[in-house]
Amino acid sequence: MIVRKLGTPDQPELAMGAIASGGVRVLNEELLKYYPIPYDVIESVAAREQEELERRERIYRGDRPALNVGGRTVILVDDGIATGTTMSSAVEALKKLGAASVVIAVPVAPESVCEEFQRLRDHVVFTCLATPEMLFAISYWYEDLRPEHICLEREPVIIDCLEFNRDFRILDTASELAFLALECERLGAPQVGDLILETYSDETGDRPPVQLLAFYKSYHACLRAKIAVWHLKDHVINDAAKWTGRARHYLHLAACGASIS
Fold it and tell me: Average pLDDT for residues 96-109, to the nearest whole number?
């Protein structure tokens, strides 16, 4: 089953609705109440997304018929829920297809959205790990969402207990800023990272010691090098030279930070 978000014309990531396999369409009535969008604009976006939905169905499914979910329990998993419109479309589509029950499992969603799904109760079970009052953006709750940084193993692998622990991450803003400065340096623009750190210090009055920033940079660089090396363990290695080179670059940056005393 494919679900496609109907993004607003000026902010595509903001869902004014969604469509799903089986001809299901759900509109975000709450959003449209305060952000009126002409009917023809909605139809134009829906038509474009319908073409993409059908294209993906052909690619993913080929000549195989759609899976029969009638009388079955279906588990829906997503990387997070922002408005809930896309997930609602998926639920409605599954109900239309005769699913006996639907289990929604997500790592993060706004508290208000969680309450809405929990109120459904009509053969729908909702579970969520983090329910912040303010979500801001799903990417805010992840250290790195880039697909190229995903490595699949047969068993779950713990890479780092500090880097991906949000409570630890927000203890010291300097750690996050040092990581940002590290990436600027890796991409050949160290002056941008220096400007960010300088602006932070001027605005907040917080001036982290140079040695502390160097430690944070070295720590983040070592972790990034480890993640790059993990890609060489993938079952299908894409561009081994790229990941080997990136690991070496990060280790070089880590060594540079470690030399500051």
Answer: 90
Give the DSSP H or E segment for 108: strand 101-108
**Which residue shows structure tokens 């010691």?**
209
Q: Among 8-17, 110-119, 143-152, 224-233, whose mean pLDDT is lowest?
A: 143-152
d(CA 126, CA 91): 11
CB atoms within 10 A of CB 48: 12
CB 109 within 8 A of CB 134: no
Radius of gyration of the chain (CA): 22
pLDDT tens by residue, 13-45: 788 888 888 888 888 888 888 888 999 999 999
| Amino acid letter for position 170 | I
Give the long-range contacts of residues 47-56, CB within 8 A, separation 24 or more.
49/4, 49/5, 49/6, 49/19, 50/4, 50/19, 52/4, 53/2, 53/3, 53/4, 53/19, 53/20, 53/21, 56/2
> What domains are defined for the chain?
3-139 (3.30.1310.20), 143-258 (no CATH)
CA-wise closest residue to 160 among 212, 226, 218: 226
Give 76's pLDDT tier (boundaries 50, 70, 90): very high
How would residue 236 be classed by pLDDT, with cut points 50, 70 and 90?
low
CA–CA separation, 26 and 6 (whole Å)? 9
pLDDT tens sequence across 55-67: 988 888 888 888 8
* Integer CA distances (angstroms), 236 to 153, 228, 229, 239, 240, in order: 11, 14, 14, 10, 10
Cβ(161)–Cβ(106) below 8 Å? no
